[in-house]
Amino acid sequence: MKDKQAFVDDVNxxxxxxxxIKADTIEELxxxxxxxxxxxxxxxxxxxxxxxxxxxKDFGKEYYRMSPIEKKPYYGCILGGRxxxxxxxxxxxxxxxxxxxxxxxxxxxxxxGNDSGGFFWGSYPDRVPGLASSHAQTFGRLAGKNAAKN
Length: 150
Prior knowledge:
Layout: H1 4-16, E1 21-23, H2 26-33, H3 37-53, E2 74-76, E3 97-99, E4 105-110, H4 131-149
């Protein structure tokens, strides 16, 4: 955001849309978000203690990014994540041909991208910017070249 007012305006826009909840008490916030109030209170107490201790014992956040949660109004929202591909995916050979259960190429299907070849099997490295793009470009080109020959 370019300045504090732009940030406030942005938050207010999402409050109006119902995506961010604003409340005067922790109890009210918990009720509006359908959260167990005692759990929310414990989480806030822990966050505030981490702030006092200058150490985020839960997530390793740098101290300068931390702040106490101690005065109204309180804001909250429910967030969810999405992953860009499966952690296994379609089995492929070196030509990016999709393989059947006997590891034989199926006639004509080629694939590339996050859902091919088990590229992310065992882990999804979410701290490697551009990894999915380079993977899709490299293996997409390979699949395209081989599909053109087919």
